[in-house]
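W.,

You were right to be curious about this one. When I first looked at the sequence I had no strong expectations either way, so I just let the prediction run and decided to look at it fresh. Below is the sequence, 396 residues in total, followed by the output.
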Amino acid sequence: MRPPHPTLRLLTLLLVSMMTIMASAAISPSLPRLRMAFEWVPGIDLWVRLVVSLPALFTAMGAPLAGVLIDRFGRKRLLVASVALYGVAGSLPGVLTSLPLILVCRALLGLAVGGLMTTAAALIADYYAGPERGVVLGRQAAFMGVGGFVFMLGGGLLADMHWRAPFAVYLYAFLILPLILLFLPEPEVKRGAAGGGARVALPWSTLWQVYALAMVGMMIFYLIPVQLPFLLRRLGVQSSAMAGLAVGVSTVVGSVVSLRYARVRQVLGYRSIMAVLFACMALGYVLVGLSQSYAAVVGGLAVSGLGQGLLTPNMANWAGEVAPEAARGRVMGLLTTSLFLGQFVSPLLAQPLIGAVGLGGAFLAAGGLLSALAGTFGALAWHAARERSGAVQGAE
């Protein structure tokens, strides 16, 4: 059988990657209307936010298992099963009348996202290497950003019709299934435990750093899709479409930056990139927290998007570079866990903070934490550069 054209293979991978951002983006603008539909439920303010964040918990739980499975048995079968489950579990809440059943479907959606995101990350690491991998990861993040904007805006328009309507966008999965079957071949890679060989040593000192940063970065980023629609309502913006447009601005800006990731990586090291992206996010969150108008919020989101566009490709490239081939699925599975655990924890930590300081205060507090992280990694990068400079001078 002839291998698929490289462009078709890459396009399919990018379209699959867009599905990960859809898990929350499509229904985020409808949260206020969903809350109104179930306002009689005790504790609805937390439950309605869990409709967005609960998939992240199950993604975090399922991704390590997905990583082990694809290392042992291959990538493609799990990817096909995950995409099919995604389409069913994602769209079914559109016809359900029970909030607990909706939450069950969202949990199953999270398991599906864990499988497809881990597999997509492993396939990119399998198919591409070196600078080319950085280019592809940048394009992946860009597609996720554009997808986030399209589905956020589309979800907002549909939510203005009815809170159930946005769930229909998850049927997108069934359009992608034939492309996976046709254009994503099973890569020839060394298998891990399936071969009965020795355990593969992993560079945990680097990986724990990557995983911690991914979790914290995503935890802070997730203030935007979960909390921003409510902040805009406080500012008098009632339209779900306008909320979706605002949230989508940060993803569009991020997608443009993501396309330049490979160029940025040629100039800066991983820790320097972390310093830059945290600084951009910090400024954007402070601007959002201080905003008194819709235009000011959008401006702050655009600034934060400059940093958000570098976060995911930097984490994935860093992990993929140090991951042994036979354990690549497990490494990427744990990265997926870190990213989505941050998403799940975000509203749980944010809710008491919002109760104490308000929505604007929560964004200001996040900006302060991001500023501290930017300063820390800036200092680490500067210290490392001085050590390298000293070593070169000593060698001379």
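Here's what jumped out at me. Confidence is low (pLDDT under 50) at residues 193-198, 392-396. And, maybe more interesting for your project: Residues 6-182+204-395 form a domain with the Growth Hormone; Chain: A; fold (CATH 1.20.1250.20).

Coffee later to discuss?

I.
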